[in-house]
Amino acid sequence: MKMLREWFGKPPTRFFPGRQACAFWCLCRPMPDLLRPSLYSRPLTMKCYPRTGVMSPDNPQKPSPIAQARAWIANSRKLLFFVGAGLSKASGIKTFRDEDGLYQDRRVEELAHVDSFFHQREIMLSWYQHRRQQLLNVSPNEGHRALAAAAKTHDVVVATQNVDDLLERAQQNMQVTCPVWHVHGALAQVRCHDCGLAFNDLTLDLGTLPVCEACHGPLRPGVVWFGEALPPEPLQESFAAAQACEVCVLVGTSGVVYPAAMIPEQAAAAGARLIEVNPNTSGLSHLCDISIRGPADEILPQIFEGLN
Predict the structure, then answer these.
(1) What span, in angstroms and rounded, lies between the C-alpha atoms of 148 and 156?
(2) What is the pTM of this model?
(3) Which of 26, 229, 254, 300 could disulfide-pair with 146, CB 3.0 to 4.6 Å?
(4) CA 183, CA 189: separation in Å to the nearest integer?
């Protein structure tokens, strides 16, 4: 046993006590390059053992998931929120991959591809203008307000896959500010497809096929379409926040869209606690220390209530 410890290093006794630790370490240690960092630590342990924060009916001494999440957040300073469409669902904005989500309509998925901008531009931009108009008629919900309130007491960064501006509105209403990185772009933004000139304007009707004043190129919404690369700055800043955070809260995301889904994977690999708030199991649930099942507008206020 001593020789094995000297050869392979100290086994991860936090998750695998005794002989089981050495057996596991011997199997995994020779091939770290074959395993992604997030799969090398937290996901494997979470698959083998129950998540630490989930209360079992036959073990009432364990704290409830919400109480455990609140305790971890209260004892941390740097928070990263990884946000998906589930956060804005209560505001009346449809999700993408739920049973009633936008992508259940194959036509919608086609309109979200960059090729449509060249082959059916008027139809595509009219549909996007309809979505842009919807933003004028919706408001932040309790989930948005809970995230904004967290910025009063913590060092908060938000990496959102949502293209709405409800988080920014919630911050403005509560007179707080924190970085909100839109890794998939923003509907409120208008951008020239040719020269990249960008500005925010929800009232400009893109369905009329307006052109850029600078270069006369076609204007488009500032979102990322299928077939396009993600904007580098939001992605880089989100990864930097994932590396630095102590707790990462996953809110209403399916966890299946890459490379954005690599952000919480990076947080897990760096040693952060992961807390999931989602009505359903996601593609990232196996990473999480706690999974709290329920809508974001109900669960987030309970977690952040009374934190200071």
Answers:
(1) 9
(2) 0.77
(3) 300
(4) 13
| Strand-strand pairing, 290-292 and 273-277 | parallel
Tell me the three state secondary structure of residue 217.
coil
Q: How far apart are CA 177 and CA 189, in angstroms?
A: 19
CB 86 within 8 A of CB 101: no
Cis peptide before 43 (omega within 30 of 0): no
pLDDT tens, N- to C-terminus, the chain (308 residues)? 444 344 444 444 333 334 333 333 333 333 333 333 333 333 333 333 334 444 434 455 677 999 999 999 999 999 999 999 999 999 998 765 445 544 445 577 788 899 999 999 999 999 999 899 999 999 999 999 999 999 999 999 999 999 999 999 999 999 999 999 999 999 999 999 999 999 999 999 999 999 999 999 999 999 999 999 999 999 999 999 999 999 999 999 999 999 999 999 999 999 999 999 999 999 999 999 999 999 999 999 999 987 76
Would the CA dihedral through 34, 36, 41, 42 be positive or negative?
Answer: negative
Domains of the chain: 2-34 (no CATH), 38-93+140-184+228-308 (3.40.50.1220), 100-137+185-223 (3.30.1600.10)
Q: Which two tokens stand for residue 225?
A: 């379409």
Active site residue 130: no
Beta bridge pairs of residue 199: 190
